[in-house]
Specification:
The complex is a heterodimer of chains A (about 750) and B (about 120).
Chain A (H helix, E strand, L loop, with lengths): L2 H30 L6 H20 L3 H18 L7 H22 L7 H23 L10 H11 L5 E6 L11 H8 L3 E9 L17 E8 L3 H7 L8 E6 L2 H12 L7 H8 L4 H20 L3 H5 L4 H7 L5 H21 L7 H25 L5 H24 L1 E3 L1 H18 L3 E6 L4 E3 H22 L3 H6 L6 E10 L2 E8 L6 H10 L11 H6 L22 H10 L3 E7 L3 E9 L4 E9 L2 E6 L3 E6 L9 E4 L2 E7 H4 L11 E7 L2 E7 L1 E9 L13 E6 L5 E5 L1 H14 L12
Parallel strand pairs in A: 6-8, 13-21, 16-18
Antiparallel strand pairs in A: 1-3, 1-4, 2-3, 5-7, 8-9, 9-11, 10-11, 12-13, 12-19, 14-17, 15-16, 17-18, 20-21
Helix pairs in contact in A: 1-2, 1-4, 2-3, 3-4, 3-5, 3-6, 4-5, 9-10, 9-14, 15-16, 17-18, 18-22
Chain B lengths: L3 E5 L3 H13 L3 E5 L2 H8 L6 E5 L7 H10 L8 E6 L3 H10 L3 E5 L3 H11 L3
Parallel strand pairs in B: 1-2, 1-3, 3-4, 4-5
Helix pairs in contact in B: 1-5, 2-3, 3-4
The chains are: A alpha+beta (about 750), B alpha/beta (about 120).
């Protein structure tokens, strides 16, 4: 579309919009007198005139601007309560409304030029209208100060011909007392340009006997022809800015100029205010004032806890238009610009979208590369070729870097998952009638995409559970001396090669006794069993376990926590619970950073090789020779329960002089895995076990070693369970792997 | 008749620079070295504008303005405070005392002249 066509289209929009507004205006005018509270109607009428004036300026329809301006001024007086609503006024305004309609219709018919006959007609109408504004305050005011409405109108007519500035000045009452002489400011204005017209506004003058000679009642409407920018003109009134009302508006072509300027701005500004300041349409002071105003409103609304008022806080643009810092067409141009910048930014975002499948394929290939690399490395050791060894060493290093880089590709911040919960917490807390705040920290913590996808559901369970059972109702909380609003915290952070996600609440905490009672009732433990806090809390993850006294539709049916645990375990993670009665509960989920390749610790038992995830390994010690086949050993004064891998996996152990113990940590507990050989770190590409082996316990997966052999990856949490259960029931052997789940 | 301006500053160089700029523009200039000196130099004399520094010995600018505003003859005389960028609090204090205009130091003579002529034409 050519520029002309676009302008034609825009003009059409203008006429349609204006005719609609005029219709509204007429309707409001007709109902004005009958309205008991006409303020809203007056505002609507004023806004209509204001909008028409503003947009006709953009199209250079100066005769409409001129006429509408006078109507608008009268309406502004009406709005300010300086003149009253009366049938005579309405009778004068209605023909004006018709006249504007006529002018707009002419535009529709393609007559955009001024029509002398119509202008004369308009002049008559305006004269009638001006009678109202002159009559009202001038009656009592000192008579030699005439309020020259006609002059004002003339001023408008002249001004719109060139891109002049219109200054509306209302000096503060204390101006004289402050030593600020309005006259000297006006004189100074001359240094910036020519004062084309100056009208003294003295409507604020009280009757002579009430007048205080020290008080300033003066205002000026000044037409300034100047090449100076808005900020420069505003600078003139720097010293009276705080106490006076200073409005500086461009007229006629000036508006168009601003719009052009805005269009030409570089596209690096994304804030509306900055765009307007950069174009010079508003000054920084005006922006600051408007922002301040907005903030105040927001704060008041917040303090009153009034969400509706908070939502109704006007947008920055509205405020600027209201205080006449900027005209609507300019604002709209700036808004359009802002939209463009945003769109552009989105396009230029420094990222590319890649099909997840391709990434997965790449990771798979890198897995193979790691295995093949390990094979090459192994072979190279068979030759006494230093050069070969060096090169394979370098290759292995590069493979490691490529591996890390590739895994990094799949890392995404967990924040997106967290942000979903804002809504959930809001909705659920409303449903439960509890006031709950969600606090999210560590949203930028990165984790493998596959983990992020699968952690959402378990987190949802935990969050709902915490809100339903964890956080008490407001009165219970108050009775306990806690703030009425509960808080729920979602936190993510990295910790020694794994990611930790915490869901904590400041609610009532877990009730140890109730859990124990329930566990005994369900036959999960014996009444005389002695359990640590951790063991007790772990019971809530048993299938069909719920201590909630009432069942709600959110949680409490006993499904959930076991599912959570199963999901987390499926991600090779584990979950632990910290709780203090009366103070709250923290659910801590440890997850591996990635599900594809891990750093493993290779150990040998008999002929078999196992991999223990390196992030679980704390240290390696030698098993004291006198230990025999015991189930615990003394680790620097600590009792360390032992798990003999040869027994667990039924592998024939070499008759060795000494065994080694790998000290492993899980959920705050330590255990020692007894093995024959320690073989060191190994980059482990996790290969899932076949379907047939899904139910085998104690094995998390398999991997392929450099020499092509298969090694099993030890499932540390399950082995810990075996260990605990074995202790509790004083059984020596573990149950053979079975299909029972 | 040209307008008279009182310049109060303990730094002679500032008084000099301001003096040159103002005289060049056609104002009469009276100089004073501190607030006390300023009050005595005024002595009922007709001045159109007062420019005062804040930090001065004997009597600082804020006190000077406060005392000045007590005198009927100078109640309406505009005062320009000389403040520095870091003295936002001083600026406000000065405004409360009655000095509604200000010029931030360091300033170019031209800036001073602009501020002055906004308040008093030569």
């Amino acid at each position: 579309m050519s520029f002309d066509e676009e302008m034609k289209n825009a003009l059409k929009t203008f006429t349609l919009e204006s005719l609609e507004l005029l219709q509204d205006m007429e309707e409001h005018l007709l109902n004005l007198e009958d309205d008991e509270a006409p303020a809203e109607r007056i505002n609507a009428i004023f806004r209509a005139a204001h909008t028409i004036k503003g947009s006709s300026g953009v199209f250079g329809l100066t005769h409409i601007v001129a006429f509408t301006h006078v109507v608008e001024s009268v309406l502004d007086e009406l709005r300010g309560g300086r003149i009253g609503v009366g049938s005579e006024l309405v009778a004068a305004l209605l023909p004006c409304c018709d006249h504007i309609t006529l002018l707009v219709r002419n535009v529709v018919d393609g007559r955009t030029e001024e029509d002398a006959a119509l202008t004369a007609e308009g002049k008559q109408l305006l004269d009638e209208l001006n009678a109202f504004t002159q009559a009202a305050p001038a009656d009592k005011a000192v008579t030699e100060f005439k309020c020259p409405r006609e002059q004002l109108q003339k001023l408008e007519n002249d001004s719109v011909k060139d891109g002049n500035w219109h200054l509306s000045l209302r000096f503060g009452a204390d101006s004289f007392r402050d030593g600020m002489d309005p006259l000297s400011f006006v004189s100074y204005l001359r240094t910036l340009g020519d004062i084309v017209q100056l009208v003294t506004i003295c409507q604020a003058l009280p009757p002579a006997d009430e007048m205080d000679p020290e008080t300033c009642y003066l205002g000026f409407e000044i037409e300034l022809k100047s090449s100076a920018g808005k900020a420069e003109i505003e600078g003139v009134f720097e010293f009276v800015r705080e106490s006076s009302i200073i409005r500086i508006l461009p007229y006629g072509s000036g508006i168009g100029e601003f719009i052009e300027l805005i269009d030409e701005l570089p596209e690096n500004l994304s804030y509306l205010g900055e765009i307007l300041v950069a174009a010079g349409a508003i000054t920084r002071h005006e922006l600051d004032d408007a922002l301040h105003h907005q903030q105040n409103k927001m704060q008041t609304a917040r303090e009153q806890g009034n969400a509706e008022a908070e939502a109704a806080v006007p947008a920055l643009g509205e405020i600027l238009v209201k205080y006449q810092a900027v005209s609507e067409p300019v604002l709209n141009a700036a808004l359009e610009k802002q939209k463009q910048v945003k769109e552009k930014k989105n396009q230029e975002a420094q990222s590319i979208r890649v099909d997840a499948e391709r990434l997965d394929k790449l990771i798979d290939l890198i897995g193979e590369l790691v295995i093949a690399g390990a094979g090459v490395n192994l072979r190279s050791r068979l030759f006494a070729d230093e050069g070969l060894k060096e090169m394979t060493g370098e290759t292995m290093r590069l493979i490691e870097e490529v591996r890390d880089g590739a895994l990094q590709l799949r890392m995404v911040p967990i924040g997106t998952t967290f942000s979903r919960f804002q809504r959930v917490v809001r909705d659920v807390s409303k449903e439960l009638g509890k006031g709950i705040d969600l606090i999210v920290t560590g949203g930028d913590t990165e984790v493998d995409k596959s983990v992020v996808e699968k952690i959402g559901d378990p987190l949802m369970h935990l969050v709902r559970n915490a809100m339903d059972h964890g956080i008490e109702t407001a009165d219970v909380r108050l009775a306990c001396g806690k703030p009425a609003r509960g808080s729920l915290t979602l936190k993510a952070y990295h910790s020694s090669g794994s990611i930790v996600i915490e869901v904590s609440d400041d609610g009532g905490g877990l009730n140890r006794e109730r859990i124990l009672a329930k566990a005994v009732e369900r036959g999960l433990i014996q009444a005389h069993d002695v359990l640590s806090d951790h063991e007790v809390y772990a019971l809530i993850f048993e299938p069909g376990f719920s201590t909630a006294q009432t069942v709600s539709n959110l949680s409490g049916r006993g499904v959930g926590m076991d599912v959570v645990k199963r999901n987390v375990t499926a991600l090779r993670g584990n979950i632990e619970v910290d709780s203090r009665l009366g103070a709250g509960t923290t659910m801590r989920i440890h997850l591996p950073l990635t599900l594809a390749i891990i750093d493993g610790f290779l150990v040998g038992v008999g002929k078999a090789t196992f991999v223990i995830p390196l992030d679980r390994v704390i240290e390696c010690v030698a098993l004291p020779e006198d230990a025999g086949e015991r189930e615990y050993m003394d680790l620097r004064g600590e009792v360390l329960p032992l798990v003999w891998l040869s027994q667990v996996f039924d592998v024939e152990s070499h008759q060795q002089r000494r065994h080694n113990v790998v000290v492993v940590e899980h959920a705050g507990n330590k255990a020692g895995f007894v093995v024959d050989r320690l073989q060191g770190e190994f980059q482990t590409v996790i290969k899932p076990l076949g379907k047939l082996f899904t139910y085998i316990k104690g094995v998390a997966g398999s991997t392929i070693l450099g020499d092509g052999k298969v090694a099993l990856i030890v499932d540390v949490p399950t082995l810990f369970e075996f260990c605990e259960r074995a202790n509790r029931h004083a059984e020596h052997a573990l149950p053979a792997p079975s299909h029972a789940s | 008749m040209s307008k008279t301006i009182l310049v109060v500053d303990d730094a002679a160089s500032i008084r000099q620079v301001v003096g040159i700029a103002l005289k060049g523009a056609g104002y009469n200039v009276i100089e004073a070295v501190d607030g006390k000196d300023g009050l005595s130099k005024l002595n009922g004399e007709k001045v159109h504008l007062i420019i005062s520094d804040v930090n001065m010995p004997n009597m600082d600018g804020i006190t000077f303005v406060r005392e000045l505003k007590q005198l009927p003859a100078y109640k309406f005389t505009p005062v320009i405070m000389l403040t520095t960028e870091s003295q936002e609090a001083k600026k406000q204090e000065g405004q409360l005392a009655g000095a509604k205009a200000w010029v931030v130091k360091p300033f170019q003579p031209q800036q001073m002249l602009a501020a002055v002529s906004k308040l008093v034409m030569p």
